[in-house]
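Forgive a beginner's question, but would it be possible to get a protein, spelled out as residues, together with the matching structure tokens, please?
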Amino acid sequence: MNTMSYLSKFFKTNDGVKLHYIEAGKGKPLIMLPGWSQTAEQYKYQIEKLSSSYRVIALDYRGHGDSEKPDYGYRMSRLAVDLHNLLTELELNDVNLLGHSMGCCVIWSYWDLFGGKQLSKLIFVDETPFNAFLQVSLGKEAEQFGILFTLENLFEVVKRIRNDYDESYTRELIGKMFPHDFPKEQIDWIIQQNCKMPRNLAADLLYETNIALDWRDVVKRINIPVLIIGARDSQMPWRSQVWLHEHISDSRLEIFEKEEGGRHFMFIENPEKFNHLVADFIG
């Protein structure tokens, strides 16, 4: 991304952590929240295009990207408060929020804590509403809600991430989310961005995100317009996106097909379609 096209800024949260964000453009505010262990920089294709029409802000959570990396605060409620601190710092209202993967959980936690007073529209990109797998079987319900882990394999994944000193397991995880012919230099860059978060902190946050979080009661209470974007070939079962659509009253659903880059990072594989959907929805 052309560094002249955006501003790299910092602010402090109410518990004293210095967080980084990228800002570009003018107009309606669009705040973009990355997924687990991802960075604001990974929205480079969205920032370049959408900043011509909107005030685009992409946040690095604590521990992520170029933000400070304290040894505390790696839970959804704290990340939601950090987001609220950003809105307060920038005196933003009528905000459009976009979250990819875990970024949706941050938005759902924000809604649970603060409601929608400062928000205009929401965009949920490829996240499941329910990971509390201990409460359900791993049959039909797992597909419907998008449950990804059994207890045993969650523990194994967290352990391997914590001990991923040479970043080989991170490479394995990320590699599975892209087609075999995706450019290696792109994969290398995504992994480099991912590993800006220390592996022990990434392991803690992955555990927190997946062990017992159930957002179904929260999403049912969302009463502002929502765009839901899923992908046919993502590891997040696309039927979980249908469930979200059916339980959010004012929602629109878009599913990327496999041949359209319909995997977990569709906003990198097919930024043209993704950006068009976002701009059309925000207006």
